[in-house]
Structure formats: structure tokens, C-alpha cells
């Protein structure tokens, strides 16, 4: 049975908030706002989303979440999101998402990405002749409640990041993209973790090899114990993980404009970059803002949303959503005397 938020976590749970694909009035009204705001946004507004607080508070938790402590944590997180202003309007450049552990930085950023991807697909379909209702139905899978299946990689990733797909529908009512280009999410922490897991698998495979006969470069053959590893090798593996990330980021930068050109996409890029500080040396961490700008801000109007735990970025005056103060919306620390 589907889990609901605990009663004390629900300020409002109206019966008139069914799934986004089930209510024709919501479909029609939402598409009208979406199309209008995107047309305006392409000219001047830029990237912005609405926040449907009632829909947020009516969120149903997926059935695999049965631990009461986790239910309470997610309930508090959703209630915190409902304190955001009714409109989030992002400036071109870098906008951070910060906050204590468990406040939902990754969940919010992934939900915004899903909602923005949904809006882009709807806009794409309409531009190619689909009716607004048909376009919205075609894109509904992006923000519909997921059907969880065991051993499904996508489901596992969503579970690890909280419940972004469950709440994404709360951000689709009025989206301005200011762009025809598909928003992209790059999770540096996830890439780093996957590389570490692969390195461990390789190490375990190597452990199982024991003594092996190998052929040296000079053609001689000798027995080598393949299980011997030094601290230096482990350090090298850790260092190569960040190198793998750097290569992927360079590939993104190199191919982004080419891909957009081939698809006939116009307008600035909207990017989401999770935990970009992962695996950086101290000196590179000090220059993290410049690194993000170099990779993701190629042209005027580009926007990058960065959920992060970086102290360097937190102590900057970059605009942000601070989930410890959600009611402030997007703001700069210099606007508030109590920032520390």
C-alpha cells in the first residue's frame, strides 16, 4: 500500500490533487501556463519554475519506504520545500543549492531537472504540431509517480537521491526555460562512486587470481602474485577517478554545442551539476567556481544549478537556495546579516 506523509506533516492534502495525467483541467491550465511562459522566457525571462505547495504537501511516498524514521525525514523535507516562494527565478550563471545533510539538496535539484526536461519535451512536441494536451501526455512519464521494480537501475538511482520524481510534478505548472536545449544533469558524486565501485570489483577479481604466469615486454615469462597492491596503487586509483570525471566533463564541454547544433536547438544551456567538489585537490577546490564556469557557462544566459557541500562555494556570495532558510528563495548571502 502506498505510504502517505504522516498526518502531522500535512498542512493541506486536498482531494482535488490527483496525478497530473488524471485531471483534464490541470492538464489544460498547466499547458497554457507552460507554453505562455516558455514563449516569454525565450525572449527575456530565462529559467524559472513555479512551486505548487499544495501538490508538494499531497506527495505520496513510494511503497518501498516503510521505515518510520525515513518517512518522518522525507515528510519534514517535503514540508521544508513547501516553504519555498511560489516562484523560483534563476539568474544566468551559477546558482547553488545548499543546506544541512538530509534537507534534500539532491532531491530538489533532480526534481527541478525532471520538471525542466518535461517542459522541454512539451515545448518540442508543440513546436512540431502536437496539441498542448497530447504534448503533455507524451511527456507525463517524466514526472509521473514511478512504478518501482526490483533491480531496476533507474529506480535505485532515484531511491538514492530521495524522491525527486514524486515531487517533480509540483514544479511543472509554470515553467520558463528561455531555451530549446534539453537540460542536462551531471552527478559528479555518482560518477566518482561508480568509478570507486568498479575499482573495487577489479581489485576483488585480482585477489581471486593469485599466482599467475605473465609474459614480460622482453618475451620472458614469470610467475607474479596478482594480489599484491601498495598504498601507492590505491592512491593512484583514487586520483584516476577524478581524472575520469575530468575527461567526461571535457567531453561534455566539447560536444554540447555540436549536439545542440545538430538538433537545431537554440538558446542558452541549462545544466545541473551535483557535488562538483568531489575528488578535487585543495588547490583545485579553491578555484571551483572558475572550473564550473569554464565548463558549463559557454555563452551569455547559460545557467547552472549546483547542489553542493563545498565550503568554498558556500562562503562565496553566489546566488543560492539555502534549504536551511527555504522561505528566502533564491538570494545572495550579502542580502542577509545573519549569514555566516
Low-confidence stretches: 1-44, 153-160, 228-237
What is the helix fraction of residues, given as a range? 40-55%
SS class: alpha/beta
- Beta-strand residue fraction: 5-15%
Order of helices and strands: EHEHEHEEHHHHEHEEHEHHEHEE
* Rounded mean pLDDT score: 76
Helical segment count = 12
General description of the model:
The chain has 340 residues and is of the alpha/beta class. It is globular and about 70 Å long. The chain is built from 12 helices and 12 strands. Strand 11 (320-322) and strand 12 (330-331) form a beta hairpin. The two termini are 44 Å apart. It has a 6-stranded mixed sheet. The model is unreliable at 1-44, 153-160 and 228-237 (pLDDT under 50). Helix 8 crosses helix 9 (231-262). The protein has helices at 24-45, 53-57, 68-81, 105-127, 132-139, 153-160, 164-168, 188-207, 231-262, 282-286, 288-296, 311-314, and strands at 3-4, 48-50, 60-61, 87-89, 93-98, 184-187, 211-215, 221-225, 270-274, 303-307, 320-322, 330-331.
Topology:
Layout: E1 3-4, H1 24-45, E2 48-50, H2 53-57, E3 60-61, H3 68-81, E4 87-89, E5 93-98, H4 105-127, H5 132-139, H6 153-160, H7 164-168, E6 184-187, H8 188-207, E7 211-215, E8 221-225, H9 231-262, E9 270-274, H10 282-286, H11 288-296, E10 303-307, H12 311-314, E11 320-322, E12 330-331
Helix pairs in contact: 4-5, 8-9
In short:
Helix content is 46%, strand content 13%. The chain has 12 helices and 12 strands.
